[in-house]
Every structure is written in structure tokens, then in C-alpha cells.
Design brief:
The complex is a heterodimer of chains A (235) and B (419).
Chain A lengths: L5 E12 L2 E13 L4 E5 L6 H8 L7 E6 L2 E2 L5 H11 E4 L11 H12 L3 H14 L15 H13 L5 E5 L7 H16 L3 E5 L3 H4 L4 E6 L2 E7 L8
Parallel strand pairs in A: 3-8, 3-9, 6-7, 7-8
Antiparallel strand pairs in A: 1-2, 1-4, 4-5, 9-10
Helix pairs in contact in A: 3-4, 3-5, 4-5, 5-6
Chain B lengths: L3 H17 L1 H7 L1 H31 L3 E5 L9 H5 L6 H10 L5 E15 L2 E10 L11 E4 L4 H5 L4 E4 L1 H8 L8 E4 L2 E9 L13 E5 H8 L7 E5 L6 H15 L11 E4 H44 L1 H9 L4 H41 L14 H28 L2 H6 L2
Parallel strand pairs in B: 3-8, 5-7
Antiparallel strand pairs in B: 1-9, 1-10, 2-3, 2-6, 2-9, 4-7, 5-8, 6-7
Helix pairs in contact in B: 1-12, 3-10, 3-12, 3-13, 5-9, 10-12, 10-13, 12-13
Chain lengths: 235, 419
């Protein structure tokens, strides 16, 4: 599996809560290859948020190894992790997490600001990303001038703009009505079809059905990791 | 490691953050405003003093020594000074004869309590008897008419040159030259007006009437009078030589035994320099003390509000970190915000300082009639502006450091979870 983007082996995460140790992840191993479409599922407390933070390089494991594109994440400094997040990972959050006072374009440009791209290149690439999510006509709108679905599209454009190795979406439809949620899922489907690697974290079976592979966690362990039997069924 | 793109972004965010909380920002920065006002007003005052001082020295002459019973700058033991023997005309003339290094040596007699009368108007002034040579010193430059001549000097002609202050207070609209005034009862014809020389500590200099020494004697006599001697060295470099020579001769003439203190004073601008320096230092120290205090109070306020700002924007920091902001990026963002907050303080302070400076100047000049204040600058000098703004920015960076560091070190997972 040397061509895997993500290769985690026996990782565990232990938090100290007072004098109690909380084992958020006990022993998780998995690999993610290019252009996979994965749903990460599990009840609350199963460790799926911790695993997502780990996969997104926001957090490092207490034990075990995590290789991202062959590089060991556990040995990285904060700034190295920031760089991986900037270049290789696109986050999509449940609550969109856009900067309220910045326009759609400025929000999408932000990762490029941190990667040091020149101004003209930033706006060109951000415009392309917004066009891809169908918001070419909304680039100067601020988040409060956009609907929930449009905000999530801006967030997806922000995740796409650096052309990351994976797109990591945490309950991306959790704050949307079901019709809008379906539109957003259609967008993820399309991104996957055009070659992106997508990992969805969700507790909704209906959302998970979009994925090609479903990983279920329980009590910090992988309960099941199977191809999605419904996958062929379009929504 | 910092990227240009991030600096632009940081400035944009900081300006935004200040604009959103404009009222809060302005209140927070009040301490800085006070600090900057103090720095600028103090700086202006010191610069003004320097300008006044330079002006004065230019007029009085840096190469002039005045040998007198009294120490003009005060200082020393007053009782002891008072008990000194008067300097007689004979001593003054002997000094004039013996001095070799000086360009000019001019004996002078002074009558402090003179009354000058024109028609029915009377003003008080001091009366100076001096020689025609005094007209060649910087202190004897006339703006109207002329100084008295050697002939008038020899013949004890009753002619007078009046100081600028007298010309203004006594004559008002009347042309002084050609008028006859009564100087302590004796009529003198006014032949000239001395240019304005008065300055900070020596306003009396403009309230004098100069008459030939010979005329002074014939009118008021020389008995019981202490003379002074004005010595013009010719240039600054000769001053030490001239001073040493004058002291030697005077001690000899007045029979001061070796080891005893001089029983006369050498008055020169340098002595006033020391006095001016003391005043300058005092203003500077008091001003600096207040400024530092204001900046300390101000930076505590800034630090506090920056901690609030970091807490309020924890989630935003989390998002930024998630999409690739490094520690330095976050640190920079908050340092710039803090520095801008202080610069905002400076920008508020500058018009306030300008108003203070302009009104102080106007009040001193027209209210107190301290004309010499007009040599001070009516506007805040540009270097003070730059100093004030950069000091504020530095204070901002210093005050913002701890909060910015807290922001930079936030754990992205924790920060994202924050509501």
C-alpha cells in the first residue's frame, strides 16, 4: 500500500481528564488510497471525531504511526502540520466556519494567503474554485448574504482551492435542510467522480450511502470497514 | 518565514477588527492617547525652549562676559555676594586698560530704579551708563535711529537709546527718535531704539535706557555705585583666554589674596546655559515620568483587550489553523492588531496635541504678552509625529505579545470546538 495517501497503523489516542484517562482511540489501523470515497460512521463517543482530527493532522496520535503520503505525521512540528493541512487537506465543517466579514472570494483565498500565493494567482484560483461549486455569481457576497447551502458551497470551494490530496468533511449536511443537503452531497459525488479523495464523517446512513466504502467505529475501535453495497444506487 | 501575503491579510483583519469594535478600541487606547499627548507636548516645549534659547544667545552674544558684583544667574551665597565691595569706575577703567586678549572692554554703570517720563506718562526702567563702544556689541543693535557716538560720549551729551520694551510701553504710537524724555528728572533726547532682546529669564533687558557714561555721571554721580564691565572676546574660541585674563586682572586690581574666592562674578551665557539645561532636564524628566506611567497604564489596557479579542475569536483562530495558518501567522495577526490599536491612539492624540500646542502658544503670546514664545513652532514638528507613532506601535507590539502568543499556541482542535 505504498501508494496510499493515508496509512495509519495501530494508532491510539489517550486524553487526560483530571486523573482519569480517556481512551478516545484504542487501536485503529486503516489505509486510504487515492480517489476513494469514504464515510466514517459511529455513535457519539465512538472516537470518530478524534479520528477525523487525526486524519486531518489537527492532532497527533499518542501511539502508533501515521504516514501521510509516506511522511510520518507523529514526528512533525506544529508548523509542519500547518503546512500539511494547508497543502494536502481540505476541511469542510458542519457549521461552515467561514469568516463572517470576508467576502466569498476572500474566504476561498484564505488557504492561498497562508501558502504565500501571489495576489493575482489567489483570486484566479479562488474564482475557479467558486465556479466549480456553482457560485461564480456570488463571489463578492458575504456569508450573511448567502443561504446555508451557498455557505457550505463556499466552504467546499475553500477546501478545494489548494487542490488537496483529501477533502475531509465533518457532518457537512448537519446544518442544512434535506433538499439542500442532497445538493451538497451531489457536489461531493461530483468531486469524487472528477478524481478527488473524499472522507465524510457522518452519523446519517443516508449520507453515508453516497460513499464507496463505510468505516464504522465503536468504543475507539474499527467495528467494520466494508465497501458500500448501495453505492451503485444513485440518489 | 513570514509571507508577504500574510502581512496584507493581517492588516486587513486588524483594521476590520478595530472598525467593528470602534468604540471599544478608542476607549482602550485612551492611555496611549494620554501618553502620546504628553510626549508630543513635552517634545514641543523642549524644542521651543531650545529655539528661544538659541535666539537669545544669538542676540546677547556667546562671546560676551559681564563682570559684575552680582551673579546674574543667581546661585552662590547671596549674603556673601551682597557683602562684596562695589566695583568702582577706577577698577573698571584699569581692567579696560590692562586687558589685551579682548576685542572690547566697556565699563557700565547702572541705576536700577529709574523712572522714565514722556509728557505725563511714566514707566519704570533701569538706566545704563555705557560707552559708544557698546553700540558695536550684539546687545547694542538699534532698529531705529542710532547709538551714541564717541563725541557724544566724550562731551556728556544728554542723549538716550531706549530698550524695545520702553519704546513700546512709553511711546506707543509716537515715533521715539527725536522725543525728549525725563530720565529720573533729567531731560534726555532719544536718538535710537534697541532691537528686541528679551527672553525667557531676562525680560528686564528690554526695559533699559542707555545713556553715555559721562552723561550718567553728570546726572546721577558715581558715588556708591557698583560698575559692571562688558567684555567682548571677539569669538567663542577666545572666551576661555579672555575669561582667565579678566579674572587675573580683576583679582589683582581688587587685591584678592591667593586662595580666596573671587569677589566679583563673571556672567556669561554659558552660566545661563546650565540653568536652561536644568529646566530642560526637569521638563524632560517630569514629562518622561508621566509618559512612561501613561504608557504602562495604556499597555495594560491594550493587553487586557487583546486577551478579550483572542478569546472572542478562538473559533476563528481554530479555523485559520485548520486551513494552514502557522503559529507565526497567528502571532503576526494579533501583534499587528495590537500595534494598530496603539497607532489609532497616536492618531487620536495628534490633533489633541496640536490643539494644546496651538492654544498654549496663543495664550502665552497674546494673553501674557510673552512675545518670545513666537519663536516656537506653531505646529507639531514632523519628527515628533514620527516618534509618537513609532513609540505607540512599539508599545502596541509589546503589550500585544502575551495575548498574541496565547492565540498562536492555541490547540486547533480545542479552538475549533470553542463556541
Amino acid at each position: 500500500m505504498s501508494d496510499a495517501i493515508i496509512d495509519i497503523r495501530h494508532i491510539a489516542k489517550v486524553y487526560e481528564m483530571g486523573n482519569e484517562e480517556v481512551h478516545a482511540l484504542r487501536d485503529v489501523s486503516l489505509t486510504v488510497g487515492a480517489n476513494e470515497y469514504i464515510a466514517l460512521m459511529g455513535p457519539s463517543g465512538s472516537g470518530k471525531s478524534t479520528l477525523m482530527n487525526m486524519l486531518g493532522c489537527l492532532d497527533t496520535p499518542s501511539s502508533g504511526t501515521y504516514l501521510f503520503n509516506g511522511q510520518s505525521v507523529g514526528d512533525m512540528s506544529d508548523d509542519d502540520l500547518a503546512e500539511i493541512r494547508n497543502q494536502e487537506i481540505g476541511f469542510v465543517f458542519q457549521t461552515f466556519n467561514l469568516l463572517p466579514r470576508a467576502s466569498a472570494l476572500q474566504n476561498v483565498e484564505l488557504p492561498l494567503v497562508y501558502s504565500g500565493a501571489p495576489r493575482s494567482e489567489r483570486s484566479r484560483r479562488a474564482e475557479d474554485a467558486l465556479t466549480r461549486v456553482g457560485l461564480a455569481d456570488r463571489i463578492d457576497h458575504r456569508p450573511n448574504e448567502l443561504s446555508g447551502g451557498q455557505r457550505q458551497r463556499v466552504a467546499i470551494a475553500r477546501a478545494l482551492v489548494t487542490q488537496p490530496s483529501i477533502i475531509l468533511a465533518d457532518e457537512p449536511t448537519g446544518n442544512l435542510d434535506s433538499k439542500t443537503g442532497q445538493d451538497i452531497m451531489a457536489l461531493f459525488d461530483e468531486l469524487w467522480r472528477s478524481g478527488n479523495t473524499v472522507i465524510l464523517v457522518t452519523h446519517e446512513e443516508e449520507i453515508a450511502r453516497h460513499a464507496q466504502r463505510i468505516i464504522r467505529l465503536r468504543d475507539g475501535l474499527v467495528e467494520s470497514d466494508q465497501p458500500n453495497e448501495f453505492h451503485a444506487t444513485p440518489l | 518565514m513570514l509571507r508577504l501575503s500574510e502581512i496584507g491579510e493581517s492588516v486587513r483583519i486588524a483594521v476590520d477588527a478595530l472598525r467593528i469594535n470602534l468604540m471599544r478600541s478608542m476607549l482602550t487606547t485612551a492611555g496611549i492617547v494620554v501618553g502620546v499627548v504628553l510626549v508630543v507636548v513635552m517634545g514641543w516645549t523642549i524644542k521651543g525652549l531650545d529655539a528661544v534659547w538659541e535666539q537669545t544667545i544669538g542676540i546677547i552674544g556667546r562671546d560676551m562676559l559681564y563682570i559684575d558684583k552680582w551673579n546674574w544667574a543667581g546661585g552662590g551665597n547671596w549674603r556673601k555676594t551682597r557683602s562684596r565691595k562695589d566695583i568702582t569706575l577706577r577698577e573698571a577703567l584699569m581692567l579696560k586698560e590692562r586687558m589685551e586678549s579682548a576685542e572690547m572692554v566697556i565699563p557700565m554703570a547702572r541705576n536700577w530704579g529709574g523712572s522714565i517720563k514722556l509728557n505725563n506718562r511714566t514707566v519704570n526702567s533701569s538706566i545704563q551708563g555705557t560707552t559708544y563702544e557698546y553700540g558695536n556689541t550684539p546687545a547694542g543693535v538699534t532698529i531705529e535711529g542710532r547709538w551714541f557716538s564717541e563725541v557724544e560720549d566724550l562731551q556728556a551729551t544728554r542723549v538716550a537709546v531706549v530698550g524695545y520694551g520702553i519704546a513700546k510701553s512709553l511711546f506707543e504710537d509716537i515715533e521715539p527718535v527725536g522725543q525728549t524724555i525725563k530720565v529720573n528728572g533729567h531731560p534726555f533726547r532719544v536718538i535710537g531704539v534697541v532691537e528686541k532682546r528679551g527672553f525667557l529669564f531676562m525680560d528686564f533687558i528690554d526695559n533699559q535706557v542707555f545713556v553715555p557714561l559721562s552723561a550718567f555721571q553728570s546726572a546721577y554721580g558715581f558715588y556708591g555705585r557698583s560698575f559692571s564691565v562688558a567684555v567682548k572676546a571677539g569669538n567663542d574660541r577666545l572666551l576661555d583666554i579672555v575669561r582667565d585674563e579678566a579674572i587675573g586682572h580683576m583679582r589683582d586690581i581688587r587685591n584678592v589674596p591667593p586662595g580666596e574666592d573671587d569677589d566679583f562674578s563673571i556672567n556669561e551665557m554659558e552660566a545661563f546655559d546650565a540653568q536652561a539645561k536644568t529646566i530642560r532636564t526637569t521638563i524632560w524628566m517630569v514629562g518622561m515620568g508621566l509618559t512612561v506611567l501613561a504608557f504602562i497604564v495604556g499597555s495594560i489596557g491594550i493587553m487586557n483587550i487583546m486577551f478579550v479579542s483572542v478569546t472572542e475569536r478562538t473559533k476563528e483562530i481554530g479555523v485559520r489553523k485548520a486551513i494552514g495558518a502557522r503559529r507565526a501567522s497567528v502571532l503576526l495577526q494579533f501583534l499587528i492588531e495590537s500595534a494598530l490599536l496603539c497607532v489609532l491612539g497616536a492618531l487620536i492624540a495628534l490633533p489633541i496635541s496640536q490643539i494644546i500646542v496651538a492654544s498654549a502658544r496663543a495664550i502665552l503670546i497674546s494673553g501674557l504678552e510673552w512675545d518670545w514664545v513666537s519663536v516656537t513652532s506653531p505646529v507639531i514638528p514632523i519628527d515628533l509625529l514620527l516618534i509618537a507613532i513609532s513609540v505607540s506601535a512599539i508599545v502596541g507590539v509589546a503589550a500585544g505579545f502575551l495575548p498574541a502568543q496565547r492565540a498562536a499556541r492555541l490547540d486547533p482542535v480545542e479552538a475549533l470546538r470553542f463556541d
